[in-house]
Structure formats: C-alpha cells, structure tokens
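Q: Given only this backbone (877 positions), what sequence would you predict?
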C-alpha cells in the first residue's frame, strides 16, 4: 500500500460535502431550559411572587406590579448571566485546538481534527485519541482502549487490513477511542455524527449538575428566606395580639408589614452574583493560559495544599538540546539552543566534521532512524517546527547540524519495539540495500545491559564489565549536572524476526541533552511555599538529574526513586509522602499511588500529567491538570484544568486566581447578608418599638436592586490582595467563616441601628415641630432610605479589603464599585426629585438632610477603618 493521502484541494472539496468532523454537543442546554431553571432553582422567586400577590390583595397595586417586574428582571438577568456562563465554558474549551497528523499533498501535516474528511490518511501514535472512524493500513504494536464504546477497559489488539474493501472490528479504529500502545497509519472512513461514537452520542443525555459553590450560596439564600418568613410571622403575630380585636384594616396593615419584612431579607440577586463572578473568573484564568473544564473547580483551586508536577515541559522549557556526546572514548560538544538548526560539533573546543568520525557518524545516523519525531522548517526561519517528542526532535536537530536527514538515508523500517515508561528503550529493525540493521536508544542503565560489544573507530570489540561501569558512571556524572542522558546502540541483523532482536547490541555512545528550567519557575515555587502549598516534582528522570534540577529551582527535601516506591506498602508510603519532595524514575502507576497517599493524609491535591498513562492519576487528584501543548488527548479529557502554555507558573497563577475568586464571592455574599440583616433589623425593631413602618416594600426592593445586588456584583471584581499567596490554603468549608460572619454581623448591626436612629429622630423631630403625621412619616422614610443606601455604599467600600483601611486605599482600586456607587446615587435623585417620588412615596430632601444622612453613613467607614487598624495590630476578627 502507498498511503499518499489527499491533496489539499480534494480535502477542501470533501469538507464542503461532509462538513466538519464534530459531534453534536452531548449535554446541550437549550435557552428555554436555562430560562426555566431560573424559576425552578430560585426559591426566592416563589416568595417574591407570594409577596406580589399579597400586595395586590391589600390594594398596593404599584408595589405588586413592581415586584412582578422585579421577578421578570431577576429571571432575565439570571438567564443572561447563566447563558453567558454556559457559553463561556464552551468557548474556553474550544480555545484548546485538537490537532491530528494527516498526509496532505504527500507529506505529514498537522491539521485541526475538525477538518479531517473521509479519505484522509492519518498518522496516529501512543496516547492519542482517534479523531474519526478509520481503517488501519499499517500498524506497529497497536493496542487500542475502546472502553468509551464498549465499557470494557482492556486494550484491544488491532491489525492492518488485508484489503481496503474488507474491513471489520479487528482492523478498524473508532473515533473517541485511545491508542494505548504502538502507532498506525489509517484511512478515514467516517467523520462526525456518521461515526460509531457519533451514533451513540446522539442517544446520550447527561444529568445537570449544580456547582458545589452554587449550592452553598443557594443554601444561604434559602436560610435567609426562612429567617424572613419566621420573623415576618412573629412580627405579624405580635401586631395582631397588640391590636386586638381583629379588623379588616388591621389585617391589611399586618400584611403590608409582612411583605416589607419578607422583601427586606430576600437576597434575590445572590445566585446571579455567583454565576457572574465565576464566569468572569474563568475568563481571567483563560487569559493567563489556564482553561477550566468546569467552573466548580475554581473553588477547589483555592483549597489546594499540594501540587504534584512533572518536570519536562512544565518546570522546564520543554525544548531539549543535545549538548554533549560521548563516543569513541571521547567527548564532543554540540553548540546551539533548542530547535534552532544552527550549531557546530566541537572536540577539545575545536570545530570538527562529525562525518569523518566513524562512530560519531553512526551514532548520528542511529539517532535519526530510531526516531518517531519530525522536524520541518518554519519558512525562512532557522528554527525547526517539531512534531512529536521534544527529546526525539532534539536528536533530529543534532543530526541535522551534521547534515544527516531522514529523507537522505536509504532505509526502510520493517519492525520496531516502541518506547514506553516500562521498557525505557526503543528499537527499530531497518532494511538498507538488502542489509538489515537494528538501531536502539534508551536509558543507559537499561540499554547497556543489552549490549555485548562496543565500537571504537572501525573496530567492534567485547564490552567488558569495567567498560560498562565506566560508561554508567559517566552517565551518572552527566545526569548529576542536570543532563538527560540516552545511550545509543546498533547491530546488524540476520532476519526480520523480532524475537530477541535487542540482544547482543553494539554500544555506540551517550548523548546528553539539556532542558533548562523556565525563568519564572523559581519565583513560582517560592510563591507556593509562602502560600503554604507543598510542591512535589514527579519525573521519569534519574535521581542525579532530578536532584540537580530541584536544587536549581529551590525544591529541597527528601528524594525517592520508583524502585524504592515499589517496596513500600500504601501505609508506608502515606507516612513518608508528605516529607518527600522529589520522586525520580517513576512510572505512571506510581503517580496514582502518590496521589492516593496524599489524599489519605487529608491533602487537597493538584496533579499534572501529559500522557495517556497519567489519566488515572489526573482523575484521582482533586484537580487534574493537563498540558495544552504536549499533552495527549486522553490526559486533556481527564483533566479539570488545561495549561495552554504547559507552564508550572501558570498553574500557580490559576491557584492564586482561584483563591481570589473565592474571597471575592465570600465578600460579595457577606456584604449582601449584612445589607439584608440591616434592612430586617430596621423593619423588625421599628415595628417592635411601635413606630410606623420605616420602609415600604417598594423602597426595600429599590435598595436591593440598585445598591445591594449591583455593588455586590462589583465586589466580585476586586483585585487580588497582596497577601493572597502569603496565607495557608483554606480547608474545605462553607462560604462564610468566623471572620466574615463577624464582619457582616457588626456592619449589619451598625447600619441597622444608624438607619433606624435616623428614622426615629427625623419622625419625632417633625412631629414635635407640628408637622402632619403623613408628611412626617414620608420624610422620615425618605431619610431612612437615603441613609440606608449611603450606608450600603460605604459598606461596599469597607468590603473591598478586610485589612486595608478605606483611607489608605485608592478610590479606584475597584473602578466598577465607583461606577455602581455613582449609579446608585443618581437613582436616589431620580426617585426623590422626579415624579417617580409618587410611586416610591418619597419627598425631596434639603441640603441639611443630605449632610446628616451622609455623615451618619460615613461613620461606618470611620468605625471599620479603626477596627481594621486594631485587627492588623491584634486580631479581633
């Protein structure tokens, strides 16, 4: 078979006919469902509806119609925010572009998986998710996990087809399944909804899940509604008892008070605030290259106590460079950085031609032939674009610097033993001009045991035990200097049989590669330490390399290697896992054990992974983090968080953002509760003390919408406080802790007392001056309304920070709060000095009234700034 693939023109024509290779969304939430959910999930909507009906019943038509309008407004706002949140997460997921290698115009090309069409020839490797239903044309050690289709987790051996017209389950690969081992070349048969996966997907529906954080907020809202009903019933009962016998007017007055009390305690905007802040936070994280799969993980991010991270590409740059070669009893240097094609070969600091050294030339050739990566020119740029493993790409770049390229070698690969984390070596059997050769590379301690001979110049001699020890010691010495070391070997073969073809190899040399730590890593790890987060590096590299990297980036602590892990029971591992900082020479199965041990010790674990074998550990961790660049489809699918840049520092920024979002939600909820409690206090104690109703229901609804909900929403956009990464992780708990509860209780009490005091003093003062009862009540209510709104604006500025006094912070620390405050004041002016005052039963206030209300409200800032200063000196809340 000659899998030449499609031309780009043919592919474009087929794309028009077949459409994109996409599955109709499995859990698509319709706009109608989201709209109905606003009513179904929000208990307060029913209470407001009851309040509206009661208002109409008692003749308060304006109040009743307004409450109905507010219900509609809440439903619409909730719908808009949740719809945006739903589409936001989908948009974030689409930011991760899934690609596949297809043969287009006769060469391997990386294309978006959604642009695959029937007839395309795909090159698929270990760890990749199969993007369409395919017929297998060529395969090497191919095993596929089809659990997504069959429910059975065992790996299925697949075979190449004998004829392209004769295909069955054994020679097909299906969309959505994963390559567990090996690789293949396959022709696409079906795409999108025409695949087996697409047919099943069309019949699948998923249950909707409520965010844990959303449940906590809804619980608080339900609690407040319960308080409102209880207090309303108690107040109504007291009023009825105090004013017996029962009359129609008494019942009407009691119902008016009950409506006002209920409305005052309903935090109707709380669910809307939550969804808005979470969606905004998800976008902020995406801008910093951290993409969440679902918004609920944002809460868990802030609780993270341990981060387990890979080394290659996460802590390091992921661009390997060959720096030194040991061959023919000599060291050779290689210049250049990363995947740049410019570089020289040096011996004793003098440039040499590597092709003139027989052993070195053979080593470079082996590095090209025993390789699954591809390198391509980026236009006129000297750097190569790589496809495949960074380590293998570095070997290709090394050989390219000497002028050796795969396309120039007259070699045909016939068989192979693929590299995996268990074998730690790779071998290929090639035919060259009727000769057969085996080329191998792998970990020195593994490959050296397969070698019986060594080549020096043109001679092949016996590899002695002493020579082996010398080579292994050289490898350890290089590894101790942070190099990754690979051994290279070859041998002539007699046949194409794979049995025992890796025995009696001829050792050629050692290749040392370097992958430098990212510039920002040291500071990121330092930030984790300040935040009380333990960082553990888990790597397949040897002990010496791991220790050297750890030392350079500031990771100190005990180290354990995979072989030592195997000897430990789960209980023994749990005892030492917390004090162990570096895990070297680990296998994917070890990662799962490490995560389980940490969880057993009560840690909240974030785990990174990039390979198919990392999926179990990613699922087991509280937060699984996959790599967006070098990660496999399987790891990304298993992950809760995807790093677009594969950078450890990005994960630390995500943790910081998660902490910030939770604190902002906590502040917003605390703020709303303080306002609701203050309003409840004013109404309840006003009635209890025998005063007229201090605020009518319509005025309270106005306050809740214009001040409470709007300013609470802006608190969700507070900047990260400077101390956010200098405190220990928050353990799993509710939204409100002791500190936030004390703060909202104190502020709510001050606001309630201050507002009721203004109402009482204004009311009694006007009566003393001989003002008519009705005007005195209207003026006192207006003063209470204005004072309460100004109090709540001042309260919002207090809630920007629990530590920094308002006078020490810039006014525009949160510009959205400033805008919301300005809008609230403008709204007050509208209902006081326009015909709207008739509907809201307010009267215009003179400048003196404004001064009194402003100074009273301003006192809250003074009191809390004093408390903050005292708290910074000696913790009082």
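A: Predicted residues:
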């Amino acid at each position: 078979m000659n899998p030449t693939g499609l031309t780009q023109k043919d592919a474009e024509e087929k794309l028009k006919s077949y459409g994109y290779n996409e599955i109709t969304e499995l859990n698509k939430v319709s706009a109608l469902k989201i709209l109905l959910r606003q009513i179904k999930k929000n208990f307060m909507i029913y209470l407001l509806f009851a309040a509206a009906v009661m208002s109409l019943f008692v003749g308060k038509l304006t109040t009743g119609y307004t409450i109905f309008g507010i219900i509609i407004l809440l439903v619409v706002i909730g719908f808009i925010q949740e719809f945006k949140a739903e589409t936001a997460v989908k948009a974030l997921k689409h930011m991760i572009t899934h690609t596949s290698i297809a043969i287009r115009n006769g060469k391997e090309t990386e294309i978006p998986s959604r642009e695959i069409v029937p007839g395309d020839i795909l090159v698929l490797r270990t760890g990749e998710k199969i993007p369409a239903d395919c017929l297998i044309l060529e395969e090497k050690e191919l095993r596929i996990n089809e659990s997504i289709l069959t429910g059975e987790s065992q790996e299925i051996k697949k075979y190449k087809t004998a004829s392209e017209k004769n295909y069955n389950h054994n020679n097909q690969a299906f969309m959505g399944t994963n390559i567990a081992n090996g690789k293949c070349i396959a022709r696409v048969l079906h795409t999108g909804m025409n695949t087996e996966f697409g047919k099943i997907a069309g019949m699948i529906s998923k249950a909707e899940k409520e965010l844990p954080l959303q449940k906590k907020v809804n619980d608080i809202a339900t609690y407040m509604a319960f308080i409102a009903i209880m207090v309303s019933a108690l107040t109504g009962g007291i009023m009825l008892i105090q004013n017996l016998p029962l009359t129609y007017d008494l019942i009407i007055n009691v119902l008016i008070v009950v409506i006002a009390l209920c409305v005052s305690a309903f935090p109707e905007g709380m669910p809307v605030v939550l969804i808005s802040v979470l969606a905004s936070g998800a976008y902020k994280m995406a801008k910093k290259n951290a993409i969440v799969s679902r918004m609920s993980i944002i809460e868990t991010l802030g609780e993270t106590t341990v981060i387990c991270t890979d080394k290659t590409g996460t802590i390091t740059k992921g661009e390997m460079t060959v720096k030194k070669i040991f061959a023919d009893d000599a060291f050779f240097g290689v210049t250049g950085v990363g995947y740049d094609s410019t570089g020289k070969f040096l011996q004793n600091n003098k440039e040499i031609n590597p092709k003139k050294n027989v052993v070195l030339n053979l080593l470079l050739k082996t590095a090209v032939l025993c390789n699954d990566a591809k390198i391509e020119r980026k236009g006129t740029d000297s750097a190569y674009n790589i496809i495949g493993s960074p380590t293998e790409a570095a070997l290709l770049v090394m050989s390219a610097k000497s002028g050796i390229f795969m396309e120039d070698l007259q070699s045909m690969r016939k068989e192979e033993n693929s590299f995996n984390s268990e074998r730690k070596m790779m071998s290929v059997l090639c035919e060259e001009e009727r000769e057969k050769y085996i080329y191998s590379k792998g970990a020195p301690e593994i490959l050296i045991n397969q070698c019986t001979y060594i080549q020096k110049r043109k001679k092949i001699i016996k590899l002695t035990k002493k020579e082996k020890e010398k080579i292994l010691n050289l490898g350890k010495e290089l590894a101790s200097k942070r190099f990754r070391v690979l051994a290279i070997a070859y041998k002539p073969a007699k046949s194409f049989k794979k049995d025992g073809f890796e025995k009696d190899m001829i050792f050629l040399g050692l290749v040392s590669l370097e992958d430098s730590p990212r510039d920002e890593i040291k500071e990121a790890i330092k930030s984790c330490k300040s935040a009380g987060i333990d960082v553990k590096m888990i790597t397949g590299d040897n002990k010496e390399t791991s220790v050297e990297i750890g030392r350079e980036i500031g990771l100190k602590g005990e180290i354990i290697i995979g072989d030592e892990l195997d000897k430990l029971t789960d209980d023994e591992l749990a005892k030492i896992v917390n004090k162990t900082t570096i895990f070297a020479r680990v296998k994917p199965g070890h990662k799962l054990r490490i995560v389980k041990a940490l969880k057993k010790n009560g840690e909240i674990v974030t785990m990174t992974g990039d390979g198919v074998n990392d999926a179990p550990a990613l699922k087991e961790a509280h937060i699984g983090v996959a790599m967006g660049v070098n990660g496999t489809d399987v790891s990304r699918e298993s992950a809760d968080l995807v790093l677009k840049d594969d950078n450890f520092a990005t994960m630390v920024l995500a943790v910081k953002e998660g902490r910030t979002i939770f604190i902002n939600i906590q502040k917003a909820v605390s703020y709303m509760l303080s306002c609701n409690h203050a309003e409840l206090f004013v109404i309840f104690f006003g009635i209890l003390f025998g005063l007229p109703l201090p605020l009518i229901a319509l005025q309270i609804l106005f306050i809740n919408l214009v001040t409470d909900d709007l300013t609470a929403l802006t608190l969700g956009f507070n900047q990260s406080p400077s101390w956010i990464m200098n405190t220990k992780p928050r353990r799993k708990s509710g939204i409100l802790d002791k500190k936030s509860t004390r703060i909202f209780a104190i502020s709510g009490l001050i606001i309630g007392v201050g507002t009721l005091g203004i109402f009482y003093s204004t009311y009694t003062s006007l009566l003393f001056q001989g003002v008519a009862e009705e005007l005195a009540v209207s003026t006192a209510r207006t003063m209470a309304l204005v004072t309460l709104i100004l109090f709540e604006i001042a309260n919002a500025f207090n809630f920007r920070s629990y530590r920094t006094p308002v006078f020490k912070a810039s006014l525009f620390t949160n510009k959205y709060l400033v805008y919301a405050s300005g809008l609230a004041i403008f709204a007050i002016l509208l209902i006081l000095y326009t015909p709207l005052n008739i509907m809201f039963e307010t009267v215009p206030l003179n400048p003196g009234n404004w001064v009194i209300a402003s100074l009273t409200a301003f006192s809250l800032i003074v009191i809390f700034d004093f408390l903050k200063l005292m708290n910074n000196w000696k913790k009082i809340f």
